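--- STAGE predict ---
source: upstream dedup step, 1 unique chain passed
mode: sequence only
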Amino acid sequence: MAMIEFDENGNVKRPKRHDFRFLSKKTEIANTQREFEDKLKSTSNQTIPVTIVWHGGSTEANVYYSANYDFWFYFEKLEEGVPIPRYWNAFGLGKPKANAKIHVDVEINFPLEITTQSESDFRIAGVLVEQESKEIWVYHTGRLSGKKFEDFWKNYIGASRRFSDKYLAEIGNIDSKDFVNNIKNFVSDVARIKKLG
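--- STAGE serialize ---
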């Protein structure tokens, strides 16, 4: 049982509040997206022309491939013709063959901006959080294309954190030396979950 602490006036001390805020401004999200891309691109040793396909659509793209981590990634800013403008950050395991059709294992997307309460309901799966220390951490809601929300949380084995009334899967501190490895581990875990029945 936790010990109750009292202040100098004999009042019960309130538990320390862990402050955080979700990044919402266009400029701060754009700056963090740029750092996110730079961290990943620094590990890439080549780009590969492919066609990324999904249910109902496809796009030709030059994806980045990291031999050290053996996964690929692709970035695109989506502003027109989408319900919520966002940064599309797509990831997949292994090295794609040139000009092949490939599928995304997971997306860690960020909204371009959050201007209303209704836009902060985590419809975009990637979440940027500034902690008390001013460090920026990347989280994921667990919403996956083609998979039930409950299936993710039932099978996810990584770290998570509760923010108010929502649990988010922890990917990592963007300034950590292990950040790219943390992303690779998250992509691998999601790929594993998607293979489950």
